[in-house]
## 1
Amino acid sequence: MDPGNHTTVTEFILLGLTNDPTLCVMFFVFFLGIYIVTLLGNISIINLVRSCPQLQTPMYMFLSHLAFVDIGYSTSVTPIMLIGFIVHGAVLSVHACEAQLCSVVTFGTAECFLLAAMAYDRYVAICSPLLYSTHMSSQICLLLVGASYVGGCINAWTFTGCLLNLSFCGANQIDHFFCDFSPLLKLSCSDVSIIGIIPSISAGSIIVVTVFVIAVSYIYILITILKMHSTEGRHKAFSTCTSHLTAVTLYYGTITFIYVMPKSSYSTKQNRIVSLFYTVV
């Protein structure tokens, strides 16, 4: 498409989940409730971990940072989505849309790395308990946390950099509840054949690396647990990993569906529904 034949877009309109007034009210109340619970729950986790000396361990330190990332993730998306339910189409400037995408990718990627770090922490705790204090020292933990945030920023730069190289002219209605990369590609009047692939490669590489770390960690954990003679010891080891493994399965399943699978394999409606799970719920 020739950008010269169209007016340059300066703002986007988020169409949201629905135009039905009744559903908008119901969704507003429902997702506002989820957002409040998310904020209160994660803030409570952070305060509890930082105020309780007994919780000053690597596992709970990672958990507190995961809670912080979850707050940032939800806050990047939910307030704008709630506004969309009230005004039936939230309006964002192009720069605000870019900032939202950058924020979502930063926190989302950081969560991937933190989940991998937590899996490694559980591996060391269960498979090499005598070396735990050495392998999971405060310096190593801070390094893992710092690397998680840096990795998030680098991946966000990849997405945002590609977005900045796109031109938008003509249509400005995004069929989504936040400025996700895939819906924005559909509105661009630039050639997206290469730019559309780069973020998928970046996100896919991060998913492969972090899933590999998690998978290897849990394989060794499972082998160690099966070698335990104590039933109580097995139960305790399993219980420490169950919640983390559940979070990993749900989170990686949704982001793989959105950012790695071919865009032609799912509809925009499916995109929105799956996105709800990893951004809001």
## 2
Amino acid sequence: QVEALKMENSNLRQELEDNSNHLTKLESEASNMKEVLKQLQGSIEDEAMASSGQIDLLERLKELNLDSNNFPGVKLRPKISMRSYGSREGSVSSRSGECSPVPMGSFPRRGLMNGSRESTGYLEELEKERSLLLAELEKEEKEKDWYYAQLQNLTKRIDSLPLTENFSLQTDMNRRQLEYEARQIRAAMEEQLGTCQDMEKRAQVRVARIQQIEKDILRIRQLLQSQVAETERTAPSKHGASSHESERQNECQGAAEIIVATAGSSQSSTARMDHETSSVMSSNSNYSVPRRLTSHLGTKVE
């Protein structure tokens, strides 16, 4: 009986020791849970602040993002372009009128001017559309970079968590919290920008449109250069013809002046001969000169 009591006593002591160890372990786990709860509370508060800041950022990005409905397509505005180029043409014509009397033949044809105006206006519209597409691409790239930076930061934090064989409640809670934040950021990115396929498709469409616009711009610039070269070729020939005509007019005017001068000298010589004839008549009264002689001489000289 004594031996049995001793064995029972030792068993009870062992059980009591095990219970005390288990109680100590439970107390340590409870303290760890308190610490984890404190950390979770702090992380929840930080997440709330970050989510509010993220919402503000998303709203700001939505405000900054260019909506395609605002730019349904490229529409020519001939009134604005014609008015601006009309004022430019008026200033050029006024300057040419003040500087030198340039003949009207030196100006380009009306159809050529209208074609160059429309081409220049369309060129401005293409450049505007290209700048808008480039701005959209840049804004979307900045948004994607921001989201990817956030996801990369969370991935680094998850990878930095310690890997232990024994289960740690605090490490597991931290990992779950970081994974939750990563899912939230990815969902916000897909809601804002769409999936990766959508983003890639949008970028390809914009790049293709930009390449087409650049081809059209190059073609229009070559057309304008050819029109300017044609205008420069036709202007000197017309100017030479007008100068030749002015030379002919000057020659005709000089010939007319010579004729007038000859007529004047002839009239003066006729008057002088009449004066001499009258003096002869007065000096010699016996010899009378017929009137038809003076008239005949005057007619012959004229």
## 3
Amino acid sequence: MKMKKMMDSTTVIITTTDNRVLLQKRDENPDIEYSGYYSLVSGYLEEEETPLDGIIRELKEEFEHKKSQKVHFSSITYLGSEYRADYDRWEYIHHTYLMDDAADIRILEGESFVLLDMDECLRLENLAPHHKLFLLKYRAGLCKIDVREQSKKMFDEITVRDLIKVESVGDVKNYSLLEAGTGFVIGEDTTLSASIPAVEAAKYIGFLQFVPKVLRGNHYHFRKVEYMLILQGRMHATFQKYDDSEAVIEEIWEKGDLVRTLPGCVHTLTALGESNVLTIEFSPQPYVARDVLMNDKK
């Protein structure tokens, strides 16, 4: 008998500004996965909800401040996604800083919460095993998150800029760049060569050619995280949040730009100039037709 697909879920690693990790003690309830265990804050996603919107909802539902109207968390950083084969679902992992004194907050779901150093968390025998995996996998990335930068906005102040990340890879054929986590794109036409390390495991890979004056895209996803590497040419891109047609940003991408687009971001692309643009697109999530939603907000 085939197991019914579970709803996808979203998870957040909450740390304090002195790098302690907040763990929730789950209720003793047989209907709860790993009941009675310590865990990160997580929850199932609603059908038409992005992972980022889901985390914002979970933080609002699960915490309250004893003295003010709401608990203050920093802006949220996307860390990656993991496929749970045992439940046939995707888990999206994020990070945020707790900006309030922990003594001033209370948790509304679960028995209680604790704040532990990372090593203490990983030594717990009753830490939900998939959440232990997330901490092990992303602990190095947590060290690179600047609390001063993240605290400039609160967790529920999401703009379209938060859904896009652009990095440039090298333009010299140097395989040590792969070990450094960047890679390279060199040459033009028949001499073109590109190598990049896998940012996330790729379940979908596509080679796309864009031609001048022809728009492609104008859609968004609720689940699919997309990466695009520009191999040749210059690309014009416009972005907006799926639920906000007013805030639109434009960017120009060039050869060597690696762009990550998160769910909920409407993206429309076209080649600039007279030449075609060559790209590789990949995603940790497989292509699912029902998760391609056309933008009807002009």
## 4
Amino acid sequence: MTIKYADWINKKYPQNYLIQKPVIGSVLLAFYSLLFLIIYKPFNLTGSGQMSFEATMSLYALAMVPLHIFLVLALRKIKFFSIQEQWSIRKELAAILLILTGLGIFIFAFGFLVQGPSNRLNLATFIDSCKIVFLTCAILYGILTLINLRYLDTTNLPATLIQDPNKEIIQIKSRLKGEAFTLHLSDLIYIESEGNYIVFHLSQNGLTRKETIRNSISEVEQMLDGLPFIVRTHRAFIVNINKINKRSGNSSGYRLQLDGVAEQIPVSRSNAEKFDRLYSAMR
């Protein structure tokens, strides 16, 4: 039971729209919260001083927008939340909890400015502020998270990736009509651009082989987009991070030693930052 739960909560999961699109998501969240508060008036909320109830709630909602954007962008700086392609249910729930807690603290503090400090500096008021945020915002967050539940069934995943019991398989298409081949990602070592052709360096049963198709490396990169262990290292190379044995050099110019490959693969300066982020996350 514990193992099944761990598998479920760590499954790949589409990122909540409010987190994926922080600017649009923040405006949407503020607008929804304002409508909810005006319609339902939970916890006997009232206006502030000479301001009407609607004007007071509008002020709170407006102030939420930049803060929500800041909280989402700040989360992306944390290693655990930094790679969207590795998003999971566990990360989704943790991110929502942190964001709503941050909003609750802000609403409590912002109340001193809007409604004055009188009788606000106490635990009960702080808890009320957090309850209001969780009641309003958690509903929209929850709806958008539940919408993505269908993606827990891998047959519905919105990608070209096909799940096999033992391997991940993807169909690689050529620019030549009718030419394509099935790539077992566990076999892929690296991909190399040679003129108008792309060479896939593969490893099967301890032996290396090559598969060549007519295409550009940029188009192949798009076909493999969303796979956290596949990274473009150079204008002419794409590498499977799982096949890296050794990394030498620094961010000004890495060289990679891969399984079963004599030559070293370069990491250009322009690709070094993304490579570092993905490499660290996969190790």
